[in-house]
Amino acid sequence: MSKQVRRLLRENNEMEKLLSEDGRSVMTDIAVYLRGADIRDIDQEQIRRDIIQMLIDGEERGVSPAEVVGEDYRVFCDNILAEIPHLGMRQKMLAAARDTLLGMTALIVIWCCKCILDYLTEGGTLVFPVTAGSLIAAVLILAAANIIILYLTHDPFDHSRARNVRCTVLILLLAALSICSNILVTVELFRIHLGAAAASAVILYAVYRLADRYTDTF
What we know:
It is built from nine helices and two strands. It has helices spanning 3-16, 21-35, 41-60, 65-69, 73-81, 89-122, 132-154, 161-184, 194-215, and strands at 127-131, 188-193.
């Protein structure tokens, strides 16, 4: 993200500490909902800043969050978002690619750490096999992360037990599928040197940073 977004993010985090526990709880749900909106990161943080200030001013007057923004927080957020320019298809695709690049980088780093542990405990060479199962597991993990984020940001104001149970079951199911594919599908596709894998992680992260900075310029 750009320097401006990082600065706003830090300032908002500090401002949020001035809220009461109830105010922070409400603001957390609102922030999660904003993260799921198809608007720029800078717009998310600017909206967040304004709402935090509204809640702070309300608390100074002895007014509850519900009295400041209304009983239905989702409707309040939707009314604000309706006035903000939304991302176009090209912007959405770039944002999706950016997030995927970060996820791929994290998975490769984890895989490299596993390979290092295997090398230290079992010895052998620094060339490791990549199986079809590990690639399927990686795709499932990336898909699971996106599905869970969409699920959590869809309606974070719903704290019902049923929703929490559905979310937990979804996470466990996707995790089980990933583990099973990694264990059961053992067909070796190719071998790669640990150094090459680490270099690919560095390259992917560099591309991610470029994409992340570019998305803030729209």
